[in-house]
Amino acid sequence: MSNPPPKLAGNWAAMSQAGSALTGPVIVGLLLDWQCGTLPWITLAGVVLGLVGSLVLLMTLTLPKTEAAKPRPTEPPVS
Known about the structure:
Elements lengths: L5 H31 L4 H22 L17
C-alpha cells in the first residue's frame, strides 16, 4: 500500500484530533461520575466542553488565514 498524499494525511490527522477533542472529555466525565457517584452531571459538563473544544478546533482549521498571520518579508539592512 502506498503512502497517502501529504494533504490527505493532514486532513486525516485534523479529523482525528477533532474527534478526540470531542470524546476525551466525555470519557473522563464518565470515569469521574462513576468514581464520585454523580452520574450524569460531570459527563454532561464533559459533553459541553468537548463540543465547544471541537468546534473551536474545526473553526481554526477551516477558516482562511488572515494577512496578519502571514510572515512579513525581511528588509535588507540599511548601510
